[in-house]
Design a protein that fits this description.
With about 400 residues, this protein is α/β, with parallel strands linked by helices. It has 15 helices and 13 strands. Helix 1 packs across helix 3 and helix 5 runs parallel beside helix 6. It binds magnesium ion (MG). Magnesium ion binds next to loops.
Length: about 400
């Protein structure tokens, strides 16, 4: 097959709020080759991503993504890996490249799986599609009472683990943060695993993060996620040395496998969280999954958007031991929730598996997201580089 077309679509809610919810807008990628169509999603801000897809060459390390992909063969997984290297090399100095490429890469796996009538995890060479224990992923409430009610809600919904993050956490006093964590624990009850996401709020301030550890320990928190920005590997390591039972989690910002490897090797992580829609797709995420397990660090997905992104994020560790955690967005926007006609559902034991259908195994409901489609045009010196394509299967 030859990659005949790559079309990119930007979506957004009518009012995008200044909160830590990345599901308020969305970039979908449609690839066509050999009579088949694949879909992928970038975990990325739409407009910079569109620009990165179509940017004219600036110099040899600044090619737009599509320029490196169109017209190339797609017959097996090795072709996807070869294109990954080509895009990375030719887009080295365009920093949005991994985000943009991730959506294309995921669409290539979906397409290749459909062409071969195989699920993407089989295509990846995974020997099993093991059950994941989904944790309900949501934001802290603006006050402890709201957090308490959200925690009761996910407990009632049957989740066996839950994560609270962002919102006011880390922005007020140590005592206020402790109240938030205690409210989450109270709402979940003693049996449900509690995870906390600080959303990089302390930048690289190890003392500020360490001051929160006693409350996290009291609440039996399994992991403290992203206390620091991803590059502050030394700060992760320093905090890990000061923590007794709470493990550190991080890595969602990793935009290539090397960055993730630095965190695994030197950050003292218990869990490495990889967003397949940012790191360069299923291939790069799978590399990290293999490396993490060889180093005794638990790989988990990062996903806060649609079930298309969720399905892609589970492929890299499909064959890791059954029962590992996976992030499961429970309060995504109507845009992110609407895009799949057949969302991934929990089984009677509250566990989650990838679908067995070809590719990512999901049907998209384009009519449901059509109202959010952004009409965009990029014109340079009178030449149209991008115009929103027709949204169709
Ligand atoms: Mg996070």
């Amino acid at each position: 097959m030859i990659i005949e077309s790559v079309d990119v679509f930007a979506f957004a809610l009518p009012h995008v709020r200044d909160i830590g919810d990345g599901s308020q807008d969305m970039v979908l990628v449609r690839v066509r080759a050999g009579g088949h169509t694949g879909w992928g999603e970038c975990e990325a801000a739409p407009l910079p991503t569109l620009a990165t897809m179509v940017a004219p060459m600036s110099h040899s390390a600044c090619h737009g993504v599509l320029d490196s992909v169109l017209g190339h063969p797609l017959d097996d997984v090795a072709d996807i890996a070869r294109l990954s290297r080509r895009v990375a090399e030719r887009g080295l100095d365009l920093l949005q490249t991994p985000h943009a490429w991730s959506g294309v890469e995921i669409a290539l796996w979906d397409l290749l799986g459909k062409a071969r009538s195989e699920p993407a995890w089989v295509l990846r060479g995974a020997a099993a599609n093991n059950a994941r224990r989904p944790y309900a992923s949501q934001l802290f409430g603006d006050d402890p009472q709201t957090t308490l009610e959200r925690a009761r809600g996910v407990a009632a919904a049957g989740f066996r683990a839950a994560k609270f993050g962002w919102g006011p956490y880390g922005r007020g006093s140590v005592a206020e943060d402790a109240e938030q964590v205690a409210a989450a624990r109270e709402g979940l009850g003693p049996q449900i695993d509690l995870l906390v996401d600080a959303g990089t709020v302390w930048d690289d301030d190890v003392d500020a993060a360490a001051a929160r550890l006693p409350a996290l320990e009291r609440a039996g928190v399994v992991w403290l996620e992203e206390p620091f920005v991803g590059g502050a590997v030394w700060a992760y390591a320093a905090l890990a040395r000061r923590s007794n039972r709470v493990r550190l989690a991080g890595g969602e910002g990793a935009h290539n496998a090397h960055v993730a490897r630095q965190l695994i090797d030197h950050g003292g992580l218990g869990f490495v969280q990889i967003d397949t829609g940012r790191i360069g797709g299923i291939g790069a995420a799978s590399q990290v999954a293999g490396y993490a397990s060889s180093r005794g660090v638990t790989f988990v997905n990062h996903t806060f958007t649609s079930h298309l992104a969720l399905a892609a994020s589970l492929v890299p560790y499909a064959d890791h031991p059954a029962g590992l955690l996976c992030e499961f967005p429970v309060s995504a926007s109507p845009l992110a929730e609407g895009v799949t006609r057949t969302p991934l559902t929990l089984d009677r034991e509250g566990m989650l598996r990838l679908p067995d259908g070809p590719g990512l195994g999901l049907d998209l409901d384009l009519d449901a997201v059509r109202p959010y489609l952004q009409e965009v045009e990029i014109v340079v010196n009178g030449q149209c580089l991008y115009r929103t394509p027709e949204l169709a299967q």
